[in-house]
Amino acid sequence: MSESLRPGGVRQQLRELDRTVVWHAFSQMDGYDGLIIETGEGCWLTDIDGRRYLDGASSMWCNIHGHRHPYIDQAIRVQLERISHVTNLGMSHPTTISLAQRLVDITPDGLSHVFFSSDGASAVEVAMKLAFQYWRQCSKPEPKRTTFLALGNAYHGDTIGTVSVGGISRFHEMFQPLLFPVLRGPCPDLYRLPTHVEQSQATDYYLLQYRELFEKHSDEIVAMIVEPMVQGAAGVVIQPIGFLSGIERLCREFGCLLIADEVAVGMGRTGKMFACEHESVSPDFLCLGKGLTGGYLPMSATVVATSVWQAFLGRFEDARSFLHGHTYGGNPLSAAAAQATLDLFQMECTLEKLPAKAELMRSRLERLRNHPEVGDVRICGLMAAIELVADKATKTPFPWQAQTAGKICKRFLGKGLWLRPLGNVIPIIPPLSIAESEIDFLFDAIEHGLD
Question: What CATH class has 8-65+349-450?
Fold first, then answer.
């Protein structure tokens, strides 16, 4: 343990203020007792007591190249000496413009225009509003299209629009009277397949159910929205091979738009820069956030197909503009961090180094599979999870009120590891820069906590 960074009285005052003044997300504030982080470096966090923790959750799945990376730090300093903020309402900045072009260059074919926001939920909300407006002013308007199609157990953010297309009842049941109706298919979950369906049949099984929804409602559907390859907040649920490309084919066959929410799975998280690349999918909208700035500053982007962009062009009096925008959209400091993040993917060969790290994580995960309370382990790139169950044979979950995974994650802290649970699932989503020795440290702590 390193030397305390602050006097004891100051630390106690910070804890009291953190409990009584700061309102923490997704937290019961009655009795709240969370960490207060003072510094970070690489994959490590240090709290106000001087204790160090491996950041096994990438500071909520967003840190890519580590904390205090000198290259990103310097890029922000350089930008700060020019200007910190420029509105994108009638203005722009060279750093932001250059970032937009770089995103167009690296995202799937057909995506040629970028709308900047400040967080992932906003990027998805932008895609939804653009898709809705598109059908009212495209060359052959279809105003009856008013419904979105989403996956079971989906999570796309916490705005009213994104909660509506979300499918996790714990997050949305309180706000049900405010939400709009959505078509919803099954969650393509390989672990919780029906007993009569083999894993080799999973792709066809799930796609058939979505085909039936398209056949019945295709003239009503604005767009289908999907988290490609992995559904994060659902419990790091990994889709069967061929499901994503099958969904794209259905969207094209039935003339619907496709929104790919890559807020959590983009920026190298699944082993490729964008999860859509695993199955050569080119959506109409690709939403980015979290890792876009390397986990440094708030920024998100909705990258849009040219066919959609064209539906918004016209004379001022035609009223075809997209009337949406936030104050800090396209912020140059955030754009500088994002540019440096993209640079580092090339400079440090980040994607090329991932397969060996992913294989090490996979091998360590498999050692946990036979644990009596581990129902499943799964991984895609550096996005992994352990699912805890009360009964392995029936896959019966622990009651959510028991906070089983949360209690186990508290044990990890004693071994210097920070992870944040999702119900009965423990996601393991470290920075992409994590070293193999740090992966071993991480799983040693997990094994100790589970035992």
Answer: alpha beta
